[in-house]
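Hi there,

I know you've been waiting on this one. I reran it after we fixed the sequence typo, so this is the corrected version. Both the input and the resulting structure follow.
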Amino acid sequence: MYALSKRVISQYIRTGCRRRLRLDLYASDAARRTADAPRKDTARPGLRLLTEQGRQFEREKFAELTEIFGSHVISGESQEFEPGEESVFTPIELRDHIIDARPNTFLLEVEYQVVPRFVAVHGLTDLVDINDCSITDRGILAIKRVRPDIIHIVPFDGSRRRAIQSDGTIIVIPASDRRIGLRIIDIKATGEASPAHFTELAYYGMTLAAWLDHHGYADHYIVLAEAAIWPGKHDASAIRQLDNWLRVLDTAERS
C-alpha cells in the first residue's frame, strides 16, 4: 500500500508535515482510492511548468556532458521529451556498468534496488520484506528503485578522502586506500540548493553504500561524501568568479 522514495523524503523535509507525508507514501492512485484518501493535486499549471523546465534543464546538462566527454558518458537510449516524464533515458542497471566503467566516467540515470542492509540499519525490517524490499505478505512498505542523475567515477589521487556509509556515518579514508570513489551529482534547475536537495544526496549516498556492500563491490569502491548539486545558475562558481574578475581587469585596463 505504501512506497518510499527520495521524492517522498525530500517533500517531507520541505514541509515538515506528517499528514502530507502519509499521503505521499501511498504507492498509487488505486491505493489512495482504497484508503479513501484525496487524490494528488496535479492540476496546478505553474507546478507542472516548473517540473517540465527542470526536466528540460536536465536534458541540456546531459547533452553538455556527452558533447564534452564523449565515450566517457554511459547512459541508456535517449527518449523524446514527454510532459510528466520521470527519466531522460531508457533504464540501465548500475550492476551492468559499474565494473567496466573507466576513471572519470559519468553514469547517467543508472538504477539500482535498495538492498536489505539499508533496510536493516534504518530500522525498517518490521515494515519491509527484507528479501526484495517490495510489498509482499510480510511487508506493507515498498522502497522504490534509486536513480541518481549522475554518478562520477573518481580515480584514486593519493589523498585522504571522506566516505559515507549506509547508516549515514561519514568516515575518513586514509591516503593509502586506493579504492575508486563514486561521486553523486544531482541536477537542479534552481539557483540555490535547499535542505531537501541535500537530503536527496544523503539518501542516494546511503543507499549506494549499502548496495556496494550487498553486492561485494565495497572492496573496489567508496561513496564519496562530497556529493554535488549542479544548479541552474553558476554565479557563485570559481569559473564564473574568475571570469568576472578578468572582465573587471579588462575594463580597468581599457579605461
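Quick highlight: The helical segments are 6-15, 18-24, 29-34, 45-69, 116-121, 195-215, 238-254.

Best,
R. S.
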